[in-house]
Amino acid sequence: MILAVDIGNSNIVLGCFEGEQIHFIERLSTNQDSTSLEYTVLIKNILELNQRNNLSFRGGIISSVVPSVTQTIKDAVIRLTQAPVMVVGPGIRTGLKIMLDNPAQLGSDRVADAVAAIHEYPCPLIIVDMGTATTISVIDRNKNFLGGMIIPGLKVSLESLTMRTSQLPKISLDPPKRVIGSNTVDCMRSGIIYSTAASIDGSVERIEGELGEKCTVVSTGGMAKTIIPFCRREIIIDDLLLLKGLMLIYNKNQKA
């Protein structure tokens, strides 16, 4: 088995796969102050809860957008698996054609998302990854990664709203009863959820207008299930997209 880890700004997603089968997916909070030993214990507990022996792993792969945590997690995974660990970055084969001004600036999470989406869905593609930031990636019919958009994430926007106003409370993200709220909490829920959904609908429409054709739209990330059901555009939710990408990248580099 292979242990796959995606290090995000808010969460660390872990999973394991064998061949092309993903066995489980779990989430940890990202803590830049945690030591390698602390992460080793947390990951070991997750493996045990999922009835996986850490010594049954023959390798690992990591994608990260938090450089300060990358080596800490890598050390923890190596200690657990006693196997080589690959970090997605320069020198790793992905097969992705990146058309950015500076391809090295593309986050490894977006690389993994794109690799999986191209493998799973028809192009052209729009990928909406809803984490701390909402990233939108665009892939044309020839499977070229063209670029996209970066938008403040749902929780970032909500935290900014409550921190900068004296009378607005912290709220849960329960589905709003209706668009027009009749009290402060319902107004906030409706505002943050429907405005985010409308932003995604509008972004997709404008991207398709610029491309001149309809796209397959896929969403992933921790907030996708909260928002995408409120979008008017048909959007596929794929919780495993990033881990599928890591699996494909790992297998591609083993064959190479």
Describe this structure in words.
The chain has a six-stranded mixed beta sheet, sandwiched between helices. It has a five-stranded mixed beta sheet with strand order 3-2-1-4-5, with helices on both faces. The chain has helices at 36-49, 67-81, 108-120, 154-163, 184-211, 224-227, 241-255; strands at residues 2-7, 11-18, 21-29, 59-64, 85-87, 97-98, 125-130, 133-139, 144-152, 216-220, 236-237. 37% of the residues are buried. The chain is globular, with a radius of gyration of 19 Å. The mean pLDDT is 92. Helices cover 39% and strands 25% of the residues. With 256 residues, the protein is α/β, with parallel strands linked by helices.
Detail the poorly predicted runs: none
CATH homologous superfamily grouping of the largest domain: ATPase, nucleotide binding domain
Architecture of the largest domain in CATH?
2-Layer Sandwich
How large is the share of residues in beta strands?
15-25%
The CATH class designation of the largest domain is: Alpha Beta
